[in-house]
Fold this sequence. Notes:
Blueprint: H1 14-20, H2 29-35, E1 40-47, E2 50-57, H3 59-71, H4 85-126
Antiparallel strand pairs: 1-2
Amino acid sequence: MTAAEPEHVAWLTERQLARAWPTIRATCLNATAKANGVRNNLHVSHTTWGERTWRTYHPADVARVAGAIADGTAELQPHWRNDTPEAKLLDQRLRRKNLPGAIGCALLVAVPLAIIVVLLVISWNDSGGSSPSYWH
């Protein structure tokens, strides 16, 4: 006969789950939990701005799977881990895919900043306060 579980178990958030499984990619935590039978609760909060959902995970199951990950016996896809060649290849692909967006964001900041600097330089030169003819 198994021991009864305590009534109030502090379920773990995704942030705590990420700390317990540091070799698992943040985007693959829920998939890893599902594949390894970790009990979880889906929470839904209805607010003025819409619906927010999040999951919490049972700590005993998380600890069991953490041991299985360390032993290499957990059910994992290679790209779910941070330290496999597949994951590194996926990271390279994502970086290449996100490069145009990163360049666009940099230009979005750099162009208005350059315009402001040019306008400040022009207005400073046109003010006449720094003209050598006024130096006596």
